[in-house]
Amino acid sequence: MSRSARNLVDYWDRRASSYDTKMAGAERRFLTDSRRWVCARARGSTLEVAVGTGANLRHYPRNVDLTAIDWSPGMLDAARHQAKQIGRPVTFHHADAGALPFPAETFDTVVATFSLCCVPDERAALVEALRVLRPAGRLLLADHVVSSTWWLRAVQHVVEVASVPLQGERYTRRPVTTLAGLGVSIEESERLTLGMIERVHARRSPAEHLPN
Q: CATH class for domain 3-204?
């Protein structure tokens, strides 16, 4: 792991214990509805990439067989505690979204919510998600993205000047555009909150090979 990546892991480790409290207002107003939207569409063997403190866990259907990864040990500990509190069976792994420790075509569904904004290489994370997804499997995303409103886009670019070096968080990405050419079909896509939140239901191509 590079020094910059190690610094990011340390940043999220330090904030794991207080993260849910600090984010409670934003969760209620902006994020929870999209978490429910994404998790309701999960089916079968499901991988959540960058599980964080486990905010999604209570929203999955009970019959989903859930595996979750995060590169922050502190966040994983918080997610384990959340799973225990709600009685949700989850298999947790300490892993990097850009190098998933699973064989190809392992999962029926891959989920990433409000996390691709923080991974160092968004495309690499999406390629890995598709690699471990079975043909015609579901890729379910929600994230804050570059706004469809010009003045908010300008604000987001200014905010990134501080947020990227501090915590690796980007506000001007849009995963649905990164997915172009990666062997997926977009089943559903919605933009909310002046275009700053986007949720996507995509399916992996049934073709044998995916782009690298």
A: alpha beta
